[in-house]
Design a protein that fits this description.
The complex is a heterodimer.
Chain A lengths: L3 E5 L3 H13 L3 E5 L5 H7 L4 E5 L7 H10 L8 E5 L4 H10 L3 E4 L4 H11 L3
Parallel strand pairs in A: 1-2, 1-3, 3-4, 4-5
Chain B lengths: L3 H27 L9 H8 L5 H4 L1 H9 L5 H11 L5 H10 L5 H8 L4 H36 L6 H23 L10 H30 L2 H10 L10 H16 L1 H9 L6 H18 L1 H11 L9 H8 L3 H42 L7 H30 L5 H12 L3 H9 L5 H20 L11 H6 L20 H23 L4 H11 L1 H4 L13 H12 L1 H14 L11 H15 L1 H12 L6 H21 L4 H51 L4 H32 L8 E4 H12 L7 E4 L7 E4 L1 H18 L6 E9 L2 E8 L6 H4 L12 H4 L5 H12 L2 E4 L7 E5 L2
Parallel strand pairs in B: 2-4
Antiparallel strand pairs in B: 1-3, 4-5, 5-7, 6-7
The chains are: A alpha/beta, B mainly alpha.
Chain lengths: 122, 886
Amino acid sequence: MGKRVLVIEDEPNIIEALSFILSRDGWTVHTHSDGVNANERIRATPPDLVILDVMLPGKSGFDILRDLRADPEMQALPVLMLTARGQTRDRELAEKLGVNRFITKPFSNAEVIENVRALVTG
Amino acid sequence: MVSFNLLVAVALAYVAFLFIIAFVAERQAERGKGKWLRSSVVYTLSLSIYCTAWTFYGAVGYAARSGLEFITIYLGPTIVMIGWWWVLRKLVRIGRSQRITSIADLISSRFGKSTELGVIVTLIAVVAATPYIALQLQSVTLSTAVFANSSGQNWGAPELASAALWVAVGLTLFTVIFGTRNLDANERHNGIVMAIAVEAVVKLFALVAVGVFVVWGVAGGIGPTLDLIDASKIAEWSPPGGRWFGLIFLSGAAFLCLPRMFQVLVVENDDESRLSTASWAFPLYLMVMSLFVVPIAVVGLDLLPEGSNPDLFVLTVPLAEGRSGLAILSFLGGFSSATSMVIVATIALSTMVSNHIVVPIWLSSRAGGAMMSGDVRYAVLMARRLSIGGVLLLGYIYYRLSGGGEALAAIGLISFTGVVQILPSMIGGLYWRGATRWGAAAGLITGFAIWAWTLFLPSFGADEVIPQIVLDQGPFGWGWLRPQALFGFAGLDPVIHAVLWSMLLNSAAFVIGSVLTFPLPLERLQGAQFVDVFEHSTGTRSWTHGGAEAEDLLVMAQRILGSTEAQDIFQREARGQGKEGYLPDVTPKFVEDLERELAGSVGAATAHAMVGQLVQGASVSVEDLIAVADETAQIMEYSSRLEAKSAEQERTARQLQEANEKLTALSIQKDAFLGQISHELRTPMTSIRSFSDILREGGAPDAMQARHAGIIHDEAVRLTRLLDDLLDLNVLENGQGTLSRQEGHLRDVIDRAIAASVVGDSAIKIQRKRAEEAIALDTDLDRLTQVFINLIANAQKYCTAAEPVLRIVVRKAGGRMAVDFIDNGDGIAKEHQEMIFEKFSRLSDHRKAGGAGLGLAICREIMIRLGGSISYLPGQGGAAFRVILP
């Protein structure tokens, strides 16, 4: 069984694309498409890596990340953030909140694979 | 010889005359006819309360004792008036924009509405002004006594005292009647201003008349007068030294700080352009006032027996020459000088005492009790009236205690020195943002204490308050604290000594205190309002470069004024520009008009900041927003403490809070709009890019590849639709594109809309009464159809009922034809009803909706263009929209 990645994203087509390319790369992909319960989901079965969208219904990716990092056990969990707003302010905020990698949509598949491999080695 | 009774009769007639003047002026102002009451001439004349009895009688005495030095008392104000552009203009602008009611209010406001500073300034002003008011009472009684004695009565102390009491009572009555008629925060006293303007003319005329008589009637012309001057010791010209500069500074500073001067200069002034006239007219007035001072002094010294009081030469010279008519005129001039000063000073001081001391105490003693606004009005009015009585009573008591022996000029200078202690805080507050309330309090208290120790207390005379031994050797034998030789600087003139030390240490304490402490947020806010008043307040400034879109301004105006009113303003402007049905051009004039409309709702400063943000494209940073939120919180905290105090304050606080919320929401919204567009465009592009990558890499089964190609196709369609909507909206918002008007029938339009939107297996049932739809239209039918299609499609997408039904009802609403689209779903929550017409305001999960949230925004723009409107109809069971037909 490959490493587990949790994709938190609300666009079904993007979820499908990410699932496809990550599975093909050997990952076990779990998905979650709602902002509100995202943290509970992560804590229930902590994955090896989280891919987190910024604009989610109910709760923003930034808030999810902030809550996540407030939990001492979750401070080391690698998080890759995706945003479609493409503003430098978003990137700065994400870095301040403790993101590991940050990708602006639209992304190339190679870019995603390269980043997730860098985050979870071995 | 003048009969004493005649004098009393003339004086009473003169007072009656003033009552009539004040009364008529009040009536004129109430009927709105009082424009002339507020002219530059009246304004300039009202400034003449600077010239009190001290000037009228005392200047001659001053000249007789100290030569030309009396001129310094006129030079200070002259310099201040000529330099009006730098200080006075700022004061007047702040006074108007902050609705300042007194100099105590000014200082308190500047330093974060500090109650304590208001009390300190009020106390300084009252203590410093009391001797001055006593001086006026003294001059009226002394001049009356001159007549009494010359008509054979022999006035002693008891008669003088009772005369002073009557004068004080009369002045209290006049001031209460005309000074507390209304309570408007920046109230203007039309009657009193008019009366003192008349008194200004009387005193100038009287002094000039005596002067002319002295030069041509007594001395025998200009030549002999000059000879007389040359022969007297006044001509012994000593070059202006430090004392001159000290006195010029003192009088100029006092001109700004005296409560009564602040009252006429700032509080009673509602048009700063009057300053430019007064800047030359008032110095001219002062020049004429001083023209005959020296001749009267030398002639008096020459004519009257040795030992005559030179302070009364203006009166005694005509009397000695048997000119009783002239003497009575001169008496009226002195009487005018004294009364006008006392009246205005009393109003100014009573406003301060009641607003900063009596009312706060009264309010806190009633904390918790329910308060009606009428209740407060009555209490404040009573507080003012009692304060007026109190201030005059203090003056009378000081007059009785001091025994009235001082030379007039000496008392005046003591008062001046006391009141200029306010100067460092005032000037610092106007020009230095870093000034804090602790600095101001430290400076005021230090200066006041030094003044009291070095000048005020010793002025009662040795052993009265301060024992002789302390004067000679300092308290406890500490020589460096000797009142008239502080830190060992002996030999200076007492007044200059006190001015020097009090100003020096006052300013130092102010600066050090300000540097060491940190201003509260409210102080910072007020500091910026004061220091940069010309950027914040509405004056003559205008918007020069218009970078704003009419649409942005409209959005903002709608948020503040409400949709209907904002639309009205824009349509009116568009009509004026000949662009009916379109958005108006953003001209500087339009922006100014709009700003004024907004200012009526949210206040001038906020309106200016909001308009400025749009017009000048100033972007708002996160830090700014945080600062605004910070300060809003502070203001709210402050407001909530005041909330219990009065309904009026509560309303103001709420407006301020709302304005701040609106400002914050607006800035966030503008940022959010760009973020939204970016998000809406990038999301479909992400899927397209990712799946096209997958397809290019190949290797997947055919069925999978077909599925991925399908997704790419759908997302491309979504992207195209979004771009179409955005372009359509842009065209509509900018008023581009032409409307193609056609004649047609409502029924056909609805038919077409239903045909276009209800496709395939749509479950929604549409109920309509075709008979009611026989209405002729003359508009762009395609655009109207587009609106209807949007509404029907929305009902299909969002109606949550098990058996969805959409009713289309035609009815008359407010004199116009309306078409209502009402479904039987859950409707739209109240908190969302306002925002559904905004761009990207999508309430539900948007993939289900399949749009970008621009549909209703487009509908709204179309209806605006067509000259109709669209709105949400609350309370109809389901979601309901009303389209008012053009």
